[in-house]
Amino acid sequence: MNMDFIIVFNPPRQRKVDSMQRPRLLRSSAVALTLALAAVAGAQAGDPDEPRDTPPAAAQPAAPPDTPSDARDPRIVLSERVTVVGTAETAAGIPGAAQVLTGEPLRQRQQAFDDIHRVLRPVPGLNIQEEDGFGHRPNIGMRGSGTERSSKITLMEDGVLIAPAPYSAPAAYYFPFSGRMEAIEVRKGSSQIKYGPNTVGGALNLVSTSVPSGFRLRAKADGGQHGSGKLYAHAGDGGERFGWLLETYQGTSDGFKDLDGGGDTGFRLQDYLGKLRFSSARGASVYQLVELKLGATDERSDETYLGLTEDDFRAEPVRRYAASQLDVLDAEHRQLQLRHFAVFTPRVDLTTTLWHNGFERSWYKLQSVLGTSLASVLEHPEQFPTQYGVLTGQDSAENALVVRNNNRSYYSRGFQTQLGITGGVGGTRHQLEAGVRYLEDEEDRFQQDDRYQMLGGRMSLTRAGAPGSQSNRVSSAGAWAFFLQDQMRVGRLTLVPGLRVEKVAFERVDYAPTDPDRTAPTRVLTNDVDVVVPGIGAHYAVNASFGVVAGLHKGFAPPGPGADDATHPEESLNYELGLRGQRGSLRAELTGFYNDYENLLGRDTLAAGGGGSGDLFNGGKALVFGVEAGLSADLRSVLGASVSVPVRASYTFTHGEFRSDFQSQYEPWGTVAYGDELPYLPPHQLFSSIGVAGGRFFLDLSASYVSRMRTQAGQGPIDPLSSTDSAFVLDFLGDIALASRLHAYLSVQNLTDRAYVVARQPAGARPGLPRTLMVGVRLEIGG
After folding, report:
1. Could you give all domains of the chain from N- to C-terminal order, each with its CATH number?
2. What pTM was computed for the model?
């Protein structure tokens, strides 16, 4: 059994690392990884039996075929077109930072709540901000791009943009459940330039379960603390010409927070997916494949934006105030994808995808108390004793509590087509890709505020708002995107130049709060964006096991609908340089990055603690730089063990600061001075794990450490009330085979039951998941 996880790192809990020690810590990590890479290279150079002229596929990209007789399995070619990394072997040759989680290591990490934050912890270079403890509304950034609702990265499922409205409202209030994915891919730096629109940080692609080539059945069910349970199952079959797949994911929990006066704080999830595949015979003169994917998701979560005061958090971190008793999210997502793939010759293929994604959600949640923002009350409860009392269940006057129905609907639809051509000219081998995408998306806001009174700890409606009276507008975008990229290989050197063009037309139509029928707009705002995004990556194979990677590309993120002439797109110039090596089971990687922002964008959202207008703010010049490192190996031979002992470690150092003075209404920024550090950007992140795997069992202990980070821009000593807590969290997983196809497993998240602040937005301190134990069984039949 192949396991891929790692050495446990346990820093002293109370030790503080001052500013003089940080460079030393960074240098020590860099030196350690450099020595590991040098050992890999030296061991390979000293092996007289290894060919020196042509490095293997693990150290360089796979070569395009030279003659038609070199034709590969067309389904492998299709996989390369719809995935962004592929396998660990292909990732090793990509001229840029690329990681993939797949196979048994991914399935192991999915065996609990399937929290995408926890699944991605082993990947260096990511910035993750927890929020609800379950990972249902992920906040993921890359290389300091910003984490809010994963809106600054290119988020895809099966190579198709999956955010509710990727251009006009990219905040990912819908996120595919990681528990039904068979691979999760990450690309950063110049290697991800063809996966826009956001090219500053990187691209995250979730690969759904594939249609099998023979009968396959997978099922698992578990239950545990907090009234939690999960059921996952898929079944499928396939042959040369036809295949099918049916899949479902069901989740439920009463929640881990204790609501004043009682009540659920959990969720109910239902997810269904089906696929049909039709294809030509393998010997057809033009091989063709058509695949249809249909998906439906429904969610009800008793979730809130209301956190706790500092004192209340330290006393009872899982408490929830009475005023959040009506907060609930109802959401549904529908997706349709139709993909056609054709291989015209062994050198030429074409992949075309049409899609439609629809998402509707109504998040009914507390907005303010006695006219005061929730964040203000929880940050300074001593200044607002009456408001604080109402939040905690004291009687109030009528209309004291405002609860907003954040009622919104979204769609995204379009097509994309990608042409692949492989061949050679002289001594240079080429793999050329050209693509075009057209997308239309829309966000429709139709919101109202209702007012309540608190009596005896229960809320009663005192004035209902008219639908559309709080926000009544439609934002939309139409976007053309083109890319051209060539992977050129000459001997040991691989160059990948690329060019991306984005042409976006935005529109926002506002209607009066008293016009629910939308008879006439009060304002129509339009703005257009045209941009050229170039980039180039390089990989040089020093020998069969050791390579050097470098890249330079332009970072870009579009402004949204309604942006005025003074609001500019987010633009940056991004550099990276890295070393990569492999020797047997030992893999090591060290990459430095430097992102020079010409303009950084912020967005006023409720999730960021703002007013929720969606307006954009220029952040001016900024600088983000850092180091990401990874190391993995199997210690079986070193220890002389009869079982596999996989270990893995990853480390990320990131520093980001503003390089200009400005004022904004964006809550995490506020008034900014030159040199202020970016908020929600932890300087240090570390993941490590160690496993033991025998023929019928495996055990895995993993640890993640995230240093304290600012929740508001600033410099100098960090105010404890404007920061998260540093967190060292242990997770455990054990699995044993009860029969040849039946396994039982146990997982414990947050083994030491560490209580820590993960965020102070949107309002107040929010806790991480407390210790959670789950037990379950899984059944696997077929290949």
Report:
1. 21-45+76-782 (2.40.170.20)
2. 0.88
